[in-house]
């Protein structure tokens, strides 16, 4: 009897645990151990909320709707980053419950000339200064005790003790040597506790492979210098976008910048989390929400086309950075954990070009 009772309790606990895991695995993703090595005796795992809100969005709306991941970048400008800090302070949400991603420019770059022209006194050619500037502007809180080892070297202006959760190289520099030099600055920033994890953005498969080869070379002298995340344009009907970046100001959605299945596959193989920007086709200029197949599947599940487009990503363990100022839209985007697309519907969406 006692044994049967124990089994029932264990079974119930297991089922409850499994349910919770299923729910959480649809909303958060673990970053690969080793991708965020910290000089700390007990490195903890880092989990990233899969859905983030980006530029020109209302971050208070996002936080009120339950979103906990915010995406920004040095080149988005001072006002954007200050407004994130204000939204966080207004929300009264603990810093530890939030996940903040920022990005630093890699200059000179072939991707977009305007990205290397700074609108403030910080040079877009100095990744350490950019990261420091973003952290200061957002006024982020103090890091956990494990970052207490931070040294001031190279970050003399960092008088506050803020940190971000993820710092990405926003795009590659024109030359690989410069890209690698900027990436090493991020490795160093992570080891100093200015960011918990690092990654890259707008890297195609061959560049990502070149980076992986380089960071594993003894010359870099660091295990665990692999990127934890790659953030590229990616969406239903936009992997890559049919226009290949043409007509877009800064080539969002082009093959050249990794908006491809090949890059996604490499990321999965290498244990790097793939994060899709433009998941609804916004700046990548892809018609996602108007596609007949997307609308048909949305109707079948009693969901909106936006929810189907987001679910298609999340179900492949791909994160998404959207942008909304609309409370209804924010609530919809964050409500993709409670349904599952059948394999046939996933395949139909994957086949859209
Ligand atoms: N790494 C990079 O180089 C890079 C490049 C570009 C962008 N990004 C990041 O990615 C973010 C998002 O890019 P994006 O703007 O192209 O994203 P997107 O999600 O493809 O498009 C956003 C648009 O979708 C609409 N929307 C959002 N939720 C919706 C819903 N539930 N139903 C219908 N429409 C909805 C928004 O309008 P409403 O406001 O009306 O909701 C907005 O116009 C940027 O803000 C930025 O943070 C990164």
TrEMBL record:
GO molecular function terms listed in the Swiss-Prot or TrEMBL record: oxidoreductase activity, acting on the CH-OH group of donors, NAD or NADP as acceptor
Transmembrane segments: none
Pfam families per record: Aldo_ket_red
Keywords: NADP, Oxidoreductase
Domain NADP-dependent oxidoreductase as annotated: residue spans: 63-350
Keyword Oxidoreductase on entry: yes
Gene3D superfamilies: NADP-dependent oxidoreductase domain
Family membership: Belongs to the aldo/keto reductase family.
Protein name: NADP-dependent oxidoreductase domain-containing protein
Organism: Pelagomonas calceolata
């Amino acid at each position: 009897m006692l044994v049967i009772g124990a089994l029932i309790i264990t079974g119930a606990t297991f089922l409850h645990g499994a349910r919770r895991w299923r729910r959480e695995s649809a909303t958060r993703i673990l970053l690969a151990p080793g991708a965020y090595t910290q000089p700390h005796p007990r490195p903890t795992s880092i989990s990233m909320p899969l859905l983030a809100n980006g530029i020109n969005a209302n971050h208070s709306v996002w936080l009120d709707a339950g979103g906990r991941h915010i995406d920004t970048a040095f080149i988005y400008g001072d006002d954007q980053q200050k407004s994130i800090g204000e939204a966080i302070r207004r929300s009264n949400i603990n810093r530890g419950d939030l996940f903040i991603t920022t990005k630093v420019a890699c200059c000179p770059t072939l991707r977009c000339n305007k990205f290397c022209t700074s609108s403030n006194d910080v040079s877009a050619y100095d990744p350490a200064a950019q990261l420091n500037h973003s952290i200061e502007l957002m006024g982020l809180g103090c890091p956990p005790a494990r970052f207490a080892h931070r040294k001031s070297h190279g970050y003399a202006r960092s008088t506050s003790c803020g940190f971000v959760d993820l710092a990405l190289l926003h795009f590659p520099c024109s030359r690989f040597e410069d890209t690698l030099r900027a990436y090493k600055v991020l490795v160093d920033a992570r080891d100093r506790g200015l960011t918990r994890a690092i990654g890259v953005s707008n890297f195609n498969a061959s560049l990502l492979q070149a980076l992986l080869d380089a960071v594993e070379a003894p010359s870099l002298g660091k295990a665990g210098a692999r990127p934890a995340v790659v953030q590229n344009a990616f969406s239903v009907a936009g992997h890559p976008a049919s226009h290949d970046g043409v007509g877009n100001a800064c080539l969002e959605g082009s093959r050249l910048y990794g908006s491809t299945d090949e890059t996604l596959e490499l990321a999965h193989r290498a244990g790097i989390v793939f994060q899709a920007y433009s998941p609804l086709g916004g700046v990548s200029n892809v018609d996602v929400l108007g596609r007949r197949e997307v609308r048909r599947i949305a109707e079948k599940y009693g969901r909106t086309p936006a929810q189907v487009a987001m679910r298609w990503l999340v179900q492949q363990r791909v994160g998404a950075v959207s942008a909304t100022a609309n409370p209804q839209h924010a609530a919809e985007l964050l409500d993709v954990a409670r349904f599952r697309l059948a394999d046939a519907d996933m395949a139909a969406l994957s086949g859209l070009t």
